[in-house]
């Protein structure tokens, strides 16, 4: 059991808001770069994480975390 003490002036409702939300992530590949996204709609998602061994990929502003992207579904 882990005990956590949090000292804050914020109301407890704001602190625990969203803790029960289930996050679903998908792994996709765009331009030979793997991305972990949080789906927003059928073919849109928010980039959560970039997985690459090329340092230049991390400098690409189109692949930055938080960016909303549109992708094609492969069936």
Topology record:
Blueprint: H1 12-16, E1 26-30, E2 33-39, E3 44-51, H2 55-58, E4 68-70
Antiparallel strand pairs: 1-2, 2-3, 3-4
- Strand share of the residues? 25-35%
Total strands:
4
**Weakly predicted, low-confidence segments:** none
| CA distance, first residue to last residue | 44 Å
Give the H and E element order: HEEEHE
Number of helices: 2
Largest β sheet strand count, sense and barrel closure: 4 strands, antiparallel
Using the alpha-carbon principal axes, give the shape: elongated
Strand order, largest beta sheet: 1-2-3-4
Rg from alpha-carbon coordinates = 17 Å
General description of the model:
The structure is a single chain. 12% of the residues lie in helices and 31% in strands. It has two helices and four strands.
What descriptive keywords fit this protein?
four-stranded antiparallel sheet; 2 helices; 75 residues; mainly beta; single chain
Summarize this entry quickly.
The protein has 75 residues and is mainly beta. It has helices spanning 12-16, 55-58; strands at 26-30, 33-39, 44-51, 68-70. Helix content is 12%, strand content 31%.
